[in-house]
């Protein structure tokens, strides 16, 4: 159940830093916030707005609250395979995934297979340079870096699932960065002082607001379609290694986005920064960290959270803190029994399970937000 963490701020987090509460409270004090800000159980400090926060606004949007990875989210597919169908190791899957789902900063496909799919997305409001157009095509269906990943998991029935985390790649970042800068310019132009410059906002009805919404919605479509392409490539590779298999159902959901919704009798912009829409019956994917469990959930439509839930475990350490405090050796121990990028252990220390909060505690904190359908354990992990 939530608690009143600060004025105009409800929190579901039993493990949350004082800095995150203070940051969320700054957003909650903005005059166009309509209602309370909801902090999810995985909340932690972000840029401008708290990661794991749901911000209801009327007449304005904060671009930095959506963030620079517009449309980042999860996709999971339940397959007909069971643990009994799998080989003793999925080592043969790793080179296929590496080849078919490029990962890392700036990485992309070397073909133009994305052109047809991209044609269905329309175009962003902002005109793209020739270089950006090329990058949009090359990076479509690619993983990115940081905490983006590909997994094969087993649920409590030993049913096989594929799970993937990714967003709108370089173009989403570039478009978001452009609009965040424009919002800050407008704040200076009109002498609007904010507690945090990253809370700069765009007012509905202005050309800047309209341009941002169009670019944001396009980036969300790009991210969702990109995940779908990777998910198809992943399941095809898996079925090729196993020698059989088909897809049963797929869940594809954003956790960095904003959209218009009606809550408490008001038409609002609901910005979910590191949060999933969890209205009654909505299916979602909540990943844990490397080496821990993930969850397939169904939303309960809790009105106090604006029908939202957490998007993952939430970081306990910054990447720098994790690299200083944790070791490749302890990460290797934590990932024992799984097929993963073990040769890159030193580079992946900042994704160590101990750098994140307990996903089990996060799930206990939000029993009034979602119900668990399936609990997944990883057997294959590929990091961006």
Structure description:
This protein has helices at residues 18-28, 63-66, 93-100, 115-119, 130-139, 169-189, 207-242, 319-325, 328-334, 359-365, and strands at residues 3-6, 9-11, 37-44, 51-57, 60-61, 73-82, 149-154, 159-166, 202-203, 247-254, 256-263, 266-273, 275-277, 283-286, 294-299, 308-310, 339-340, 370-383. α3 packs antiparallel against α7 (207-242) and α6 runs antiparallel to α7 (207-242). The longest helix has 36 residues, at 207-242. The chain is of the alpha+beta class and 384 residues long. Strands 6, 7, 8, 10, 14, 15, 17 and 18 form an eight-stranded mixed beta sheet that branches. A six-stranded mixed beta sheet has the order 1-2-3-4-12-11, sandwiched between helices. The chain has a two-stranded antiparallel ribbon with strand order 5-9. It has one domain (3-316, 356-383): tRNA-splicing ligase RtcB. The model has no long low-confidence stretch (mean pLDDT 94).
List keywords for this structure.
384 residues; alpha+beta; tRNA-splicing ligase RtcB; 10 helices; 30% helix; 28% strand; globular
Care to give the gist of this entry?
This protein has 384 residues and is α+β, with helices and mostly antiparallel strands.
Distance between the termini: 35 Å
Poorly predicted tracts of residues: none
Question: For the residues shown, what is the average pLDDT?
Answer: 94
The succession of helices and strands, N to C, reads: EEHEEEHEHHHEEHEHEEEEEEEHHEHE
Radius of gyration: 20 Å
Structural class: alpha+beta
Strand content: 25-35%
Number of domains: 1
Count the strands?
18
Q: What is the architecture at the second tier of CATH?
A: Alpha-Beta Complex
- Please tally the helical runs, counting DSSP H or I stretches of 4 or more residues: 10
- CATH superfamily (homologous) name: tRNA-splicing ligase RtcB
**For this structure, what is the CATH class?**
Alpha Beta
| Estimated helix fraction | 25-40%
